[in-house]
Design brief:
Distance between the termini: 41 Å
Largest sheet: 6 strands, mixed
Number of helices: 5
Number of strands: 6
CATH topology: Nuclear Transport Factor 2, Chain: A
Structural class: alpha+beta
Shape: globular
Helix content: 25-40%
Number of domains: 1
Strand content: 35-45%
Amino acid sequence: MNVKELVQTGYDFFGKGDMEGFMGILKDDVTWVFPGENHPLSGSHKGKESLMMNMSKIPQLWENFAVIPEFMISEGNKVFVKCQGKADGMDTIFGHYFEVTDDKLSLMITFDDTLSMVNAMKK
């Protein structure tokens, strides 16, 4: 499986709610960086447990949250994905950067439209 196929597999697992499958394609020491300070997902989350704890906030914050990849660009072990971010009250653009190490996702940095995300949060 090439790096783009691996990243697409991650989106497929996430989209189906198969978090066990998703966790299976992550390195144990995976890092998820969500830039910013005041957003509920912000921070640098190291390791599968930390990443999962942070991702588990998503259903509590947004109704019908979905991330739909539109295209991917890859070079070596790096992949950039332009996505459509959707939830009730939100239809926006996300950018996601991944690195793959030893055939597993090792780094993800999200460049999401945090204003649209905050405005669409459950009240």
